[in-house]
Amino acid sequence: MEEWIIDILISLAKTLAFFGVILLWAAYITLGERRFASFFQNRLGPNRAGIFGLLQPLADGIKFMMKEEIIPKNANRAFYLLGPTLFITIALIPWAAIPFGDTVVIAGREVKLQIVDLNVGILFMIAVSSIGVYGIMIGGWASNNKYSLLGAIRSSAQLISYEITMGIALAAVFLLSGSLSTRDIIIAQMQSPWHWNVFVQPLGFIVFFVSILAETNRVPFDLAEAESELIVGYHTEYGAFKFAMYMLSEYINLITASALITLLYFGGWGIPFVDLGRLGLSVNLAGLISVIVFLVKTGFFVFVFIWIRWTLPRFRYDQLMNLGWKILLPLALVNLFGTAVVALLV
Amino acid sequence: MELTINHYLVLSAILFSIGTAGVLIRRTGIVILMSIELMLNAVNITLVAFSRYQQQVTGEILVFFVMAVAAAEAAVGLAILVVVYHHKKSVDVDEINSLRR
Amino acid sequence: MESLIKPAAFYFFSAVAVVTAIMVIVKRNPVTSGINLVLTFCSISAIYVLLNSQFIAVIQVLVYAGAIMVLIIFVIMLLNLRPVESIMDKSTGVRIAAIFVFVTALGVSLAAILTSGGISGRSGGITDEFLAKTGTIQVISRSLFSEYLLPFELTSLLLTVAIIGVVILAKGMKVRKKTGPGSE
Lengths: 346, 101, 184
Known about the structure:
The structure holds 3 protein chains of 3 kinds.
Chain A: H1 3-40, H2 56-66, H3 77-92, E1 103-106, E2 109-112, H4 121-131, H5 133-142, H6 146-177, H7 182-188, H8 197-200, H9 202-215, H10 227-230, H11 240-265, H12 283-309, H13 317-345
Antiparallel strand pairs in A: 1-2
Chain B: H1 5-25, H2 29-53, H3 58-88
Helix pairs in contact in B: 1-2, 2-3
Chain C: H1 2-26, H2 30-50, H3 54-79, H4 92-115, H5 128-134, H6 136-144, H7 149-179
Helix pairs in contact in C: 1-2, 2-3
C-alpha cells in the first residue's frame, strides 16, 4: 500500500474510535446521572433494564426513536431542524484536538492517540465551543415559543459572559507552558504532581472550573433550563430524537469539559510519582495505560459535575451576571497579571 | 494546478462587491452592519494572501487590528441600533431622518 | 494527490463563501442573513487554513463567528425583527445606482488584479517550512509585541473607548425610560 493510504486509514480509524467512545460514554452518563441522583436522594433509580440498569440507555434510545415526530405548526421548519443537528456536530468537533493518551506504534509507525495535534489546539477548542451557542439560539428562536426564546437568550448571554473569563484563565496556563498545543501543555506538567497547573495556578483553576460549569449549562448555572420558571428553556418544543440530540450533546459537552480540566490542570495522562517512560514497558502497553489514566481522571470530573448538580441550588439571573462580570473576571485578570509578573521575574 | 495569489484576490474582490451592494440596497440597519463586516472580511483575505505570498507577517498583524476595529464597530453600531429601535420601534435606516425634517 | 486537494478545497470553500454572501444580502429575514454570514465567515476561515495561516483562521472563527455574529443575531432576536417585505429600496434611482456601483467595483478590482504582473517587492523569508518549524503564533506574536507594540496598545485603548461608549448608550436609554417619554 502507498504511504498516504495508510495515513488516511489510521486517521479514519482514530476518528471513528474516538466518536464511538464519546457517544457511548455520553449515553451511559445519562444512566450514571440518574443512578447518582437517586443515591443522593435516597432512592433506587432505574435498575430494571439489565443488571444495575445497564441496558437503560439502549431502552431510552429505542424509546426516543419510536416516538412520534412533532414539529410545531408555527415553527420555522428548516431552522427548527438545524438547531439540534448543529449543536451535536459542534459538540463533537473539539475532540479532534483532545489527546486521549501518549503514542502507540501501529504498523511500524508512531501514532499519536489524538486525531490531530494542532499548534493552536486549545484556541481551536475555544473557537469551536464559542460557535456552539448557535445551536441553542437557533433552536430557541425557531421554536416560536416565548419560553424557548427566553431560555435561548439567557443561555447565550451566559455563554458569552463566561467565555471571556474562561479565556483569560486559560491565558495564564498558556503563559506557563509556552504553547497552545494540548500535547505540549500536558508534557509541561509531566515532571511531578507539583507541576500540575492546579497547584501552580490555584486561583486560575477555581475561575476556570466555575466558568466551565457555566459554559456547560449545569447547576448552579442551569438558568437556561430552569424547569420551574421556563419549563425547560430552549428545548421546550423539541421531542423524540431531536430532544435526545440536545440532551446527548449536553452530556458530550460535559465530557469535553472534564477532559479539558484533566489535560489543562491535572497533568493529562500522567500518574503521580510514576514515570511511565522509565518503567521499561513496551510502547503500546505504556500507551494503553496512559489512555486508562486519562479516562479515569476525566470520569472522576464527570462524577464531580453530577455531584455538584444534585447538591447545589440554582443562581438567580442577576447573581449569575454579577458573579461572572464583577467577581470572576477581575479575579482572572489578577491571576493573569500575577502569573505574567512571576514568569518574567523567575 | 497551482493556486496563485490572483485566486485569492478575485475571491476577495467578489466578496467586497457583494458587501458594497448590500450596504447600498438594504434598508435594515442590522443587515447593513453585516454587509460592512463582509467587506472588512474581504479585505482581510487580501491582507493574508499578500502576507503569505510575500512570506511576511505584516499582513497577518494588520488583520489582527482590523478584527479589533470590527469588534468595536459592531458593538457600538448595535448599541446605536438598539437605542434607535427604542425610539422609533424600527431599525429601518430610511426612518432615521429626524434631522432632515 | 496533494496538488489536486488544495485547489479543490479552495474552489469549494470560495463557492460556499460567495453563495452565502449573496444570501446575506438577498434574504428578507434578518436571522437567515445572519446565519448565512456565519457560514461565510467559517468558509473564509477555511481559506486562511489553505493559506497556511492557522492562527488567523482560528481567530476568525473566534472573533467573527463566535463573538460579533452572536452579538448581532442576539440583537435581532431580542428586538424580534420580522422579515421585511422587499429587500430593495422603493426608488428606482437608488436601485440603478446600487447596480452601477456593484458592477463598477467588481469590474475595476478584477481588471486591476488580472492585468497586474504578480507580486513584487521584498520577500520576508517566512516560508511555509519555517512556519511549520516555529509555529504561526510564535512568529506573529514576536512581531506584534516588538515592531507593532504601539498600535497594539492603541487597539486596547480603542476597545476601552468602545466599551465605555456602549455602556453610556445603554445607560442613557434607561435614564430616559425612567423620566418618561414627555420629559425629553
